[in-house]
Amino acid sequence: MNEIIFILLVFALPAAIGFKMALSRGKNPLLWGFLSAVFPFFIIVLYFDKPKHEITGHFRKCAKCGEIIRWKDSKCKYCGFVVLDSKII
Ligand SMILES: [Zn+2]
After folding, report:
1. Could you read off the pLDDT of 42-67 as tens digits, one per residue?
2. How many whole angstroms from 20 Cα to the centroid of ligand 1?
3. Can you tell me the mean pLDDT for 74-85?
4. Ligand 1 centre and the CA of 85: distance in Å?
């Protein structure tokens, strides 16, 4: 029984995190979940890898400079442009 918990913690947890982060970044969740399970370093890669396009609810594009910023951010961290909240539903 302890082995199952150990395997869950070592493989399933990073896989779940990788899966979720890949989804929010518009990447293949199965591929990234697998990569994260085998080599958890990919979670860090995912974390710092911002998407190339806007993903509703997770990332948005700055209307001024075109950089991708986090959905929750009210201000662009690249140019300081205040993002209008009209897109948040
Ligand atoms: Zn900007």
Report:
1. 999 999 888 888 888 899 899 899 99
2. 26
3. 86
4. 15
Strands (E), 1-89: 59-61, 68-70
83 CA to middle of ligand 1, Å?
Answer: 8
pTM of the model: 0.71
Residue 67 alpha carbon to ligand 1 centre in Å? 6
Residue 65 backbone phi and psi in degrees, to 5: -105, -10
- The domains of the chain are located at 1-49, 52-89
CA distances from residue 77 to 14, 19, 89 in whole angstroms, order as listed: 29, 26, 22
pLDDT at residue 44, rounded to an integer? 94
Q: Could you give the 3-state DSSP secondary structure of residue 13?
A: helix
Q: How far is the CA of 75 from the centre of ligand 1 (A)?
A: 8
